[in-house]
Amino acid sequence: MTSMSWKTRRSIPAPQGDRVHVELSGPPQTMLDMVYAKALDADSDRPILGDTYAKKLISQVDYDPRTSPITKQRRRQVSSITVRGAQFDIWVREFLQTHERAVVLHLGCGLDSRVFRVDPGPGVEWFDVDFPDVIALREQFYPTRDRYHLVAASVTDPAWLDDIPTDRPVLLLAEGVSMYLQERDGVALLRRVVERFPAGELQLDFWSRFGTKAMRKNNTVVRWSGSTLGWSVDGPEDILRAVPGVRVVKAISIFDAETAQRLPRGLRRFTRVASHTPVLRKLVGLHRYAF
Ligand SMILES: C[S@@+](CC[C@H](N)C(=O)[O-])C[C@H]1O[C@@H](n2cnc3c(N)ncnc32)[C@H](O)[C@@H]1O
Q: What is the CATH number of the domain that holds 242?
């Protein structure tokens, strides 16, 4: 995703014994990569996200990350994934602090443990949404909890939204997902949510047009998984134009995320330089809109 580098002192052990076999194709493959990055972070001396669920999950999967073409690349990119994940955790908590009764739509959740990390209060109905094979996998790794729901569907299918209660504010959160959608489908999804709920927030990350081109060419994860990249956003004006009724709460470069301060000194220096280099600054945006 970026040229940030990462060194881990320890490594996740190779799989042994009875592990859950994982066979996925297309965009869902990318989520294992996310989990592995989070597991490496959790195993490092100074974690940024500290996702111990990811570490446990990787130890239960019949999948050797050390030989995967996907995760070879990710070793260099762990920091961008964990900085982003930790920043969204902060934003989700901020939203839930001011909206004790809310619906959370965690779209393209993959195998992310956010609902357990954030541990929302009793007024929150939390929906994790992803393709059916991903949801089936989640069920093998994570326990159930009250007011926590799994939705096995494409996020762009309008039908699943019909079953979601609309009597309270909504938080739509999609991390590492927008780029795998076609622009018209992504925009239609945001519009549907804004039209349907009384109020709420949209929290998403986007790759710029330049970033998308670079990923198409150079990103092993994208190429290996055979994913098509269809939606690039250069700045919040793209969303303001496309989705009536929303206003910007925050739109920052990943290099300006407050969680980038948790990086080791060398990488912090790199993020400061990247933040002042226009083409890099725009590569990955973390956006937050209210309506
Ligand atoms: C890069 S992973 C990110 C997973 C998770 N959000 C995280 O940060 O760990 C992308 C996820 O988006 C999901 N995804 C992509 N397109 C989707 C769609 N149309 N409907 C549902 N899920 C989708 C994939 O299955 C995958 O789990």
A: 3.40.50.150
